[in-house]
Design a protein that fits this description.
mainly alpha; 2 domains; 10 helices; about 75% helix; globular
């Protein structure tokens, strides 16, 4: 159940958590409950209808997720002085720890088995979300004290190049992953921007391509084939 719940979590916390929802989440409980509802639907969809008996547990997980987000928003900066990347990473680690803990606990519930292919497919979707949306948002948090306009301006370009690198690893042609950098070069040329003019561009691109290719290759190795 871990792959399905991880997939649901990262979908709910990244692509499904739009800027509109995020701003309202920061403003108070209406936004927090809205986000909690998205988490509930995502995680419920991941385990139902095969294991409908988990409904109370999924509801409890969504409530814990919502309360944890509330605590992070209200007290995170006071508890952890310094860069906001620290409470951001800690928050995600706690979310994942909860999912893993619940998954191991429910192994004694005699749940209906999910096929290896379905679990691998959930890992595939999780990996794709991680190298696209999660990577992008993490960069935004990391640069929030600086100039995150860079991240916004290269948003879709970066997602495309990392998707291509992810596919190269998944298809076992990881040596072709560096070719994904062509996307960035073409877009930079169309904007009449020099690669050297962008402070973070080379580091961002190289790191993103490496992470995406490794994730893709790792998921290939975990495949049920």
């Amino acid at each position: 159940m871990i792959p399905q719940l991880l997939m649901a979590h990262f979908i709910a916390d990244y692509p499904a958590q739009t800027d509109w929802i995020f701003r309202r989440k920061l403003a108070g409980w209406p936004g927090l409950l809205m986000h909690g509802g998205v988490v509930l639907v995502a995680q419920g969809s991941a385990v139902f209808p095969e294991n409908i008996r988990l409904a109370p547990i999924v509801l409890a997980m969504a409530l814990i997720h919502t309360l944890q987000d509330r605590v992070k928003i209200k007290y995170g900066d006071n508890w952890i002085k310094g860069h906001p990347i620290i409470p951001y990473v800690l928050d995600q680690l706690l979310h994942v720890a909860l999912i893993i803990g619940v998954s191991f606990w429910t192994r004694t519930f005699n749940l209906r088995n999910v096929s290896p292919f379905t679990q691998w497919l959930a890992l595939l979707v999780t990996g794709l979300v991680l190298v696209t949306w999660t990577y992008y948002i993490t960069w935004r948090v990391a640069l929030i004290l600086g100039d995150d306009s860079y991240v916004r301006s290269w948003r879709w370009t970066g997602k495309l190049e990392r998707t291509l690198a992810f596919a190269a690893g998944l298809l076992n042609v990881i040596y072709l992953a560096p070719l994904a950098f062509i996307v960035r070069l073409l877009v930079a040329r169309s904007r009449h921007v020099s690669v050297r003019d962008e402070q973070y561009l080379l580091f961002d691109t190289i790191l993103g391509i490496i992470i995406a290719a490794v994730f893709g290759f790792g998921i290939r190795l975990l495949g049920p084939f």
